[in-house]
Structure prediction request, 288 residues.
Amino acid sequence: MLLPEGATGVLSFCTDAPGDALYRYCFAEALRLRAPELKAANHRLDGSFWPRSGEAGTPEKPVVLLEVQMHSKPGFKHRMGAQSFRFLQLHPKVKQLAVVVVVPHRRLNPGSAELPQQLQAFLDGVIWLSLEELGQQADLDPWLTLLTLPVRPEAELPASTQQILERRPDLLSTVLTMLFERFPTLTPEEIMVIAGIPTDQLLHTRAAQDLLDRGRQEGEAQGELRGRAAEAAAVTLRQLGRLCGPLSDATTAEIQALPLEQLETLAEALLDFSGPTDLTAWLEEQKG
Prediction:
């Protein structure tokens, strides 16, 4: 039974807690009991791996959740905890779960260091896979070498690319796709030079030709999107300047870095802002 908002009383679970400290705390302080509504959030996992032995998993072969985090993000740890337990809620048959987070290096700070005890206990069991450290290992499987391409020094890319393609020539399109994502401002020809892939080798590969054409088209589309985002940021900043007064350089840069979709959302949200506090709250919400 839910008590009315703001009601005071004793939490029933306190009577079952070991020892009397928690009970005395709840009773003596007459804590206010609220019933907050938790809004559903959409979480898209980067990947999940299921053992062939069954849906439950075993200690030796657990169900694996994969998350790739290449940039620092303040709310990442909270989101990862929420989506992992949401996954377990949706898959109640899973008994053995491993959570693997791929990061470019150990120096990445993917969130706050001051966390609730329960969340920290979950994070202590997470496996953090550093691509930088992985790339230092010799004789890697081609797929593992492929994972390291986003963080390898440019001088190592030709050797790494050839190591992949010598054993798995069918991964050529995947290699090029990853390099296009790493160097979005370069032309396909420039990327092939960096990777040490001869252009004439690609001329005889239909899949690679299609990928090159797609890369050019995506490059043009990205350039158009960047132009639209810059224009939207300028308009939004002018509106915010009238509403909130002069913005700090850090806030201005943060808004300019928002993708077009978020800028459009901000342009609508600011119509309900009453001042800079609302802008700060909105930006913090986007980080989560």
